[in-house]
Amino acid sequence: MLPFERVTILGTGLIGSSLARAIRNRMPTVRLTGYDRDAAVAARADELGLFDDMADSAGASVCDADLVVFAVPVRAIGAAAEEIAADLPRDAVVSDVGSVKASVLKAMAAAIEGPDRIVPAHPVAGTERSGPDAGFAELFENRWCILTPGAEADARNVERVSEFWRRLGSEVELMEAGHHDMVLAITSHLPHLIAYTIVGTASDIEDVTSSEVIKYSAGGFRDFTRIAASDPTMWRDVFLENKEAVLSTLQRFTEDLTQLQRAIRWDDGDFLFDRFRETRDTRRRVIDAGQDTAAPDFGRDRR
Ligand SMILES: NC(=O)c1ccc[n+]([C@@H]2O[C@H](COP(=O)([O-])OP(=O)(O)OC[C@H]3O[C@@H](n4cnc5c(N)ncnc54)[C@H](O)[C@@H]3O)[C@@H](O)[C@H]2O)c1
Ligand SMILES: O=C(O)C(=O)C[C@]1(C(=O)O)C=C[C@@H](O)C=C1
Prior knowledge:
- Pathway: Amino-acid biosynthesis; L-tyrosine biosynthesis; (4-hydroxyphenyl)pyruvate from prephenate (NAD(+) route): step 1/1.
- The protein is α/β, with parallel strands linked by helices.
- 54% of the residues lie in helices and 10% in strands.
- Helix 4 runs parallel beside helix 5 (102-111), helix 7 (177-204) packs across helix 9 and helix 7 (177-204) packs across helix 11 (243-265).
- The longest helix is centred in the middle third of the chain and has 28 residues, at 177-204.
- It starts with 5 loop residues before the first strand and ends with a helix.
- The structure holds nicotinamide-adenine-dinucleotide and prephenic acid.
C-alpha cells in the first residue's frame, strides 16, 4: 500500500519538480497536484507535464490532498502554510523540504491546526540550479532525507513520510530540528558561505582582471564558482533562518583560519602538513560513507 495517494507540491522549482518526477517514476498511481505562485514557473511546470493538475491558488491545490509538501524558500513556508490552512483536509499530512528545520517547524505549527500531522523533511540533495527545468527524477536516490518531527507528531504519520522518501530511493534518518540545523550549518551552510565569499573576493581583487580569473579558473576555484552560483533567494533565507548555528560555526572557522594564517607567516610547515593530512583522512571517510557518489554524477550531466 502506498503511504500517500494524493500529493500536493507547493513550489515547482528544482526540488518541487524533482519530487514530482521522482513520484511519477516510483509511485505512478499517485495523483499529483502542483502550485507555484510565479505564473511563469507554473506555466512551465504545466508544459513539462510534471503534474496531473496545476492549481491556480494555494488553497485550491490542497483541498483534496493526503500529503502537502512545501518546496518553497524557507522564509516563504510560514506564509504559504497560512495560505492553505483553511482549505487543508483534516487528515492531510503536512511536510516540506526546507534546508533549515527549527524555524520552519515553528512556522508550520503556528499556521496549521494539528501538530500530530506535521512531519518536516530535508532531502540532503540538490544542485546550484533552480526552476522546473533543472529538476530530475534521480536526485534523491541514495541520498539522506532527514525528518525532524516535533514531539507532538503522530508516529504513524512519521512512518508514512519515512516510507514515502524510502520509496523515492532515499535513506531516512530522524533528528531533532535544532540538532539538524547545527549539523547542516557545518556540512552545507558554511561551505556555501565560503564559496560566496571566495568568488566575491576574486572578483574584487584589483590587480587580477576578472577575465584572468575566468580564464585561469581551474580546479579549486572552479568548484567554488559552481556552489556560488546557487540561488540567492534560497540561500539568503537559509542564512537568516539558521543565524545562531551559522554564526557559531563561523566563529570557530575564523579561529581555525587564523591558525593557518599564522602557520604560513611563521613558516610552520609541520602544522600545515599535519592539518592537511587530517583533512585528507576526512575526505576518505566521506567517500567510504558512500553518500558522495550518486548526486554529483547526476548533477554533472546537467551542468
Ligand atoms: N536547491 C537545493 O540544492 C536544495 C536542496 C534541498 C532542499 N532545498 C530546499 O528546497 C526548497 C526549494 O528550493 P529550490 O532549490 O527548489 O528553489 P527554486 O527557486 O528552484 O524553487 C522554489 C519555487 O518556490 C516558488 N514559491 C516561492 N514562494 C511561494 C509560495 N508562497 N507559494 C508557492 N510557490 C512559491 C518560487 O516561485 C519557485 O518557483 C527551499 O526551502 C530549499 O531550502 C534546496
Ligand atoms: O550539491 C549542491 O549543489 C548543494 O548545494 C546541495 C546541498 C548541500 O549543501 O549539500 C544544498 C542545500 C541543501 O539543503 C541540500 C543539499
